[in-house]
What does this fold into?
Amino acid sequence: MTDDKTSPSRRAFLKGAAMTGAGLAAGQAAAATPDPLITEVQPWASGLGDGVDATPYGLPIEHEADVIRRNVEWLTADTISSINFTPIHALDGTITPQGCAFERHHSGAIELRKEDYRLMINGLVDRPLVFSYADLERFPRQNHVYFCECAANTGMEWAGAQLNGAQFTHGMIHNMEYTGVPLRMILEEAGLGAAGDLADKWVYVEGADASSNGRSIPMEKALDDVLVAFKANGEALRKEHGYPVRLVVPGWEGNMWIKWLRRVEIMDGPVESREETSKYTDTLADGISRKWTWEMDAKSVITSPSPQAPITHGTGPLVISGLAWSGHGAITRVDVSKDGGKSWETARLAKPGEKMALTRFYLDTEWDGQEMLLQSRAIDETGYVQPTKAQLREVRGLNSIYHNNCIQTWWVRPNGEAENVEVS
Ligand SMILES: Nc1nc2c(c(=O)[nH]1)N[C@H]1C(S)=C(S)[C@@H](COP(=O)(O)O)O[C@H]1N2
Ligand SMILES: [Mo]
It folds into this structure.
């Protein structure tokens, strides 16, 4: 495809090609305008490329230098207790490379060597235990892909459209394949007999960083699918994601995914720590705050086109693409609207949705060059439908920061540029 807005669409071309024979048609099209990139010997074919050891650990090619995490300077007073955002507008598929997966630290990313790592299990256990990193590696381990979404993702959009880009409105999320040991196994090693009835027991988890970021997790969840993870996407966790060991709490808000995990205490009640009282609670219209809002409700966003990923190819075939996820299970359907929610088309899921993992969706469509109000709407296996902004505000009011999972709108103009707007 060329950048020429008047050139025939690829789909029209392929339809023609099917009739005349694809090879012949393609040859004719190219012959009409000789392309030096094809007809001339290029520099990269006139010499040798890099040898095998040029980059012992590979980095993205310089032409992709734009695909990086970014922060929003005015959002936090400094970069230590702060957050940056995954460039979701520039990624495809579902796996987030660690190098551009958002970071959220309360007291900075610490450096902790495996040799210095200790995990303590204490409280209402039969035998308080301390594990080294090497000890953890001797438990049977599992692999799972899960999304991690900060509860504050999209939190700046409550009052109106604010940040211009999917990276900034929805980029507090990443999705990785974790390798780790079920927390259940580690708790059972310490023995849960002393805890008695597990139904009303909690675990308190904290990190080795100065903030400790302590959170209370009900025992039922702790024994269900929580992982003590030490690898992400096949390699060691990056420092910023909790090296050497972090907690993975599938479907639940990112704040509970304790990095640099140092201690798990079995308790007969929640601690009601700072991170689960003054923070990470949702103040409703009447001033009363909801607490224990752990699950991330179903949500989706169109990543392309979007403000940072405008349409540059003119009319004709257009791939609309985005991400959907739910903390309650698998995504079963995603709908896309081009007219601000008046009419909907069902998107194609790249793969069947997986529990508590990102799902990629595509709408392979034709663009007539008219403006669009693009929206996506996720539906999960419980039948829950992602709400509009108006529906969410009806229930939650305007005082909230966290857990904004409403439908997002991008206004795509005839020149292909897109802008964050509110259609509620
Ligand atoms: N020890 C510790 N764990 C932590 C935090 C922290 O500051 N310290 N931040 C939490 C928050 S609020 C989020 S959203 C996730 C972010 O994980 P990431 O930095 O790997 O993206 O980590 C959580 N775990
Ligand atoms: Mo967070």
User: Anything to note?
Assistant: The longest strand covers residues 173-182. Residues 1-28 have pLDDT under 50 and may be disordered. Residues 71-290 form a domain with the Sulfite Oxidase; Chain A, domain 2 fold (CATH 3.90.420.10).
